[in-house]
């Protein structure tokens, strides 16, 4: 679940792990995100987890090293592998966000997320309007069209919406904003998931004019108008994400 678009694809159901290593990482990661392994607790010993997941010690150890690199756990000699607080997690990591997504993020986490998203995406839109290339504008308009054409299809629509936002990140020419694409994808998914639950038939309609205004502003190099259009989009998304 580390590739762009993997959070979107998870809307259609949990993805099958490609190998034992990925399977163990995901199982433990989701368990931690869901609180089944409490913060400060020590994970079961190697023998127990090898038996639980039916993997070798080598696979288990490699999986735990990956989780440690992402900030979820910390291994200590003669103590074991301890679950770390969320403040230590790499929340910019697509896999970590995927585990939180599957576990079901709590309201306080989502509130913190939308506060960050507002800052990142509005500035991204402004910079994209100032710095985008002709090819990036072409791709932006392509994904705008795809967003409209797939409005009744969950995964294709969500992918089109994410790609629209991803192109803006690329067009910002800012390496930090480009690196925030997992956060952007998480927001797209969190806004669409409750619409699926509510039985929304046309995912594009509510924000169609807003996305058109954003694309127009980027095309015209109108930075403030682009930021304002993105702000309107985020206001709608915020209501869905927070349920208000």
The rounded Rg comes to 20 Å
By DSSP (H or I, 4+ residues per run), the number of helices equals 12
SSE string, helices as H and strands as E: HHHHEEHHHHHHHH
> What is the percentage of strand-forming residues?
under 5%
Number of structurally distinct domains: 2
Can you tell me the overall shape? elongated
For CATH, the homologous superfamily of the largest domain is named as: GntR ligand-binding domain-like
Q: List the uncertain runs.
A: none
Major sheet attributes = 2 strands, antiparallel
Q: What is the spatial order of strands in the main beta sheet? A: 1-2
Q: How many angstroms does the end-to-end distance come to?
A: 29 Å
What would you say the CATH architecture of the largest domain is? Up-down Bundle
Give the integer mean of the pLDDT values: 95
CATH class term of the largest domain: Mainly Alpha
CATH topology of the largest domain: Four Helix Bundle (Hemerythrin (Met), subunit A)
Describe this structure in words.
The chain has helices at 6-9, 20-33, 46-53, 57-69, 94-103, 107-131, 134-149, 154-171, 175-178, 181-197, 208-220, 223-242; strands spanning 73-76, 80-83. It is mainly α and 244 residues long. The chain folds into two domains: 6-88, Arc Repressor Mutant, subunit A; 105-242, Up-down Bundle (Four Helix Bundle (Hemerythrin (Met), subunit A)). The mean pLDDT is 95.
């Amino acid at each position: 679940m580390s590739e762009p678009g993997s959070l979107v694809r998870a809307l259609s159901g949990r993805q099958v792990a490609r190998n034992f290593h990925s399977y163990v990482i995901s199982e433990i990661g989701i368990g931690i995100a869901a609180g089944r392994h409490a913060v400060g607790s020590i994970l079961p010993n190697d023998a127990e987890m090898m038996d639980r997941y039916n993997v070798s010690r080598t696979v288990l150890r490699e999986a735990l090293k990956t989780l440690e690199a992402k900030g979820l756990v910390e291994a200590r000699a003669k103590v074991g592998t301890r679950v770390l607080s969320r403040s230590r997690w790499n929340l910019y990591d697509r896999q970590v966000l995927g585990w939180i997504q599957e576990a079901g993020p709590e309201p306080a986490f989502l509130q913190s997320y939308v506060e960050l998203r507002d800052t990142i995406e509005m500035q991204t839109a402004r910079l994209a309007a100032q710095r985008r290339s002709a090819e990036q504008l072409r791709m932006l308009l392509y994904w705008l069209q795809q967003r409209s054409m797939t409005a009744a299809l969950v995964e294709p629509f969500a992918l089109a919406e994410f790609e629209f936002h991803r192109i803006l990140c690329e067009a910002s020419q800012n390496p930090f904003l480009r690196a925030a694409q997992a956060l952007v994808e998480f927001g797209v998914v969190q806004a669409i998931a409750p619409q699926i639950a509510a039985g929304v038939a046309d995912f594009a309609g509510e924000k169609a004019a807003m996305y058109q205004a954003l694309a127009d502003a980027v095309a015209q190099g109108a930075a403030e108008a682009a930021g304002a259009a993105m702000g309107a989009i985020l206001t709608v998304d915020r209501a869905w994400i927070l349920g208000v």
